[in-house]
Amino acid sequence: MNLILLGPPGAGKGTQAKRLEQSHGLVQLATGDMLRAAVASGSDLGKRVKAIMDSGALVSDDIIIEMIGARIAEPDARPSGSKGGFILDGFPRTVPQAEALDLMLGTQGRKLDYVILMEVDEPALIDRLSGRFTCRNCGASYHERYQRPKLEGVCDLCGSTDLVHRADDRPEALGTRFAAYRNQTAPILPYYRDRGILRRVDGMAPMDEVTRQIEAVLAGNAVAR
Ligand code: AP5
Questions:
Q1: Half-sphere exposure of 32 toward its Cβ, with a 13 Å CA cutoff?
Q2: Which of 4, 31, 150 to mutate to test the pocket of ligand 1 (most atoms within 8 A of CB)?
């Protein structure tokens, strides 16, 4: 099964992708996490993208397409029999990225099963992002009120104590991120709707209810709209 989780910044893509990884044996491919790892490592790529990411703007298509193209071809992102596959989280974010993804999958004889749009309004997104903290080691996402780690200050998933607020969650960067979503990412929705693989879930609902709605999509029980 190959999925895209789509939605504005803070919609809950990362949160739900981690749950699907565990419940369905899929691998999460999160371009934001890959870029943050490059920044943390001090690589050339990291140096080129850090200021762009901190500002809330999108990194250029050619960098992203090369990065995801290499990752998607790795063995763990390929299904084995009827099991496995990937969850794209944060990619594609522009029409050229969506077209490049089709090309990559087509040449490998693979296809997308569903594009799941998580709909959340802007005041809720601001509330979520301003209270979010993440694990620098594994990228797990927490919230000061909605999702605290079981053990204070310790990541539930990897045990790291390196829990940090992201630079692009500052109020100055949020406006740029929301504008990038409206102007550059939302235009890809018709691309998938016209192919009949777009499904919408209520991202405003509590996390467990969002998971239930996504499971209904994967079970084939949600209508295209
Ligand atoms: P990226 O890391 O992809 O960020 P994003 O898309 O802005 O999404 P977020 O990670 O902020 O949010 P999310 O939807 O995963 O929400 P989460 O689950 O954490 O990208 C960062 C930057 O990298 C970009 O700005 C760009 O510069 C660059 N980049 C990355 N990909 C790129 C690409 N393809 N092209 C170009 N540039 C690219 O949840 C948020 C918070 O809400 C958490 O605290 C969580 O606990 C809480 N929460 C989640 N669900 C719920 C719920 N149902 N109810 C209440 N709280 C909830």
A1: 25
A2: 31
Cα torsion 224, 215, 115, 205: sign: positive
Sheet containing strand 86-89, edge to edge, reads 27-30, 86-89, 3-6, 114-119, 198-202
Q: CA nearest 33: which of 138, 182, 121, 110?
A: 138
pTM over 0.85, yes/no? yes
Output the residue whose Cα is nearest ligand 1's atom 29: 32
- For each successive 10 residues of the chain (225 residues), what is the average pLDDT? 96 94 93 93 96 96 95 84 86 97 93 97 96 88 92 95 93 95 97 95 97 95 73
Contact 6, 118 (CB under 8 A): yes
Q: Closest by alpha carbon to 23, among 43, 1, 51, 48?
A: 1
- For the Cβ of 132 lying below 6 angstroms from any atom of ligand 1, the answer is yes
- DSSP readout, 115-170? EEEEE--HHHHHHHHHTEEEETTT--EEETTTB--SSTTS-TTT----EE--GGGS
Residue 76: the pLDDT is: 86
Q: What's the confidence (pLDDT) of residue 160? A: 96
